[in-house]
Structure formats: structure tokens, C-alpha cells
């Protein structure tokens, strides 16, 4: 059980005047411009003009800018001051929340993580994701593509033998696909692809 009776954790962080909320509690925050999400879409990009998802800007309730060589969120306080928050910071807050939930569930410290990223992630996005993992206080054990992680989980649950499987990972705004073969207990990834605009 992840949080508040849910079995998943929304990748959302809200910045209030007095507290920062992560996951389900952040959904109820009243100031939409202070609710940050889609950090996975923004992570690793340096300038606004090279964001491959410009059409999404019309749908976002938060403000963006490019500062110090990175795209980030702009938060404005009631007093009019601005705070620049990077996607890496938002991602690290979400990862810290997942770490806390895992530690509560396991009754033990969690120091490392296997993290999955979209199949279409570029090197700049992977590097920034690794930075977010480090900021969250976790040691990266392995970085794999999301559809590969789904194939591993599917096989672990079903213990298939001599099979070919195709995994479709329909996300909130993306699609990842993985074709795998399972022979003699070994999972072999044959192909992975994705579309960052279909989901």
C-alpha cells in the first residue's frame, strides 16, 4: 500500500507557503500554479526553445523558464518573490517519498534503487535522472527502460517459460513498447521503442 489507501503515488509536488506536499496530498492544494508535475517530461532540458513538448505548455497550470542552463518551474509567493525549482529537485522529492514509503513497509533502511526511465529518454535526460536519484539520497543500482521493467515484473509474477511477450506501457502522456522472449528462465529483451506524445 503506497499512501492514503492507494497503490500508486502520483508524481506531483505542491509548494505551499509553509509546507511541501508530495503525492496524493498534493492533489488537493488550492493554488494550481504551485502544483508541479510532468518533471519526467522536463528533466534534462536546458532551454525552453528545445523542449520537444511545446504543445503541452498550453495544458500546464505551472509556469516555466530557463535559467542557469536548465528548464525549471517558477513559483511565486504571496509576497511576490520567485523561486526557481528544477525538474531534478521535483523528481528527487518524489523519490524521497517513495524511499520513505518503502522503508515503512519493509521496516528497514533503503539505500539503493533500480530506476526505470522511458524508452525514448536521451542522454541529457538520463544524466539528469541520475542526478535526481543522487539528490534523493539513493545509490543507483541499475537504470533500465520502463517497458523492460514492466516485462521483468510481468515475468516475475507469471513465471512464464518459452514465451514471447509484448508489453504496452500506456502512461499519462507516453507509450512504451517492449518485445521480450523468455527461455529457460531467462528474459531477453528483443526490442524497445516509445512515443513521448502518445498516452
Automatic annotation (TrEMBL):
InterPro entries: ATPase_NBD, Hsp_70_fam. It comes from the Eukaryota. GO terms for molecular function: ATP binding; ATP-dependent protein folding chaperone. Keywords: ATP-binding, Nucleotide-binding. Belongs to the heat shock protein 70 family. Coiled coil: none annotated. This is Uncharacterized protein. Pfam families: HSP70. It comes from Diploscapter pachys.
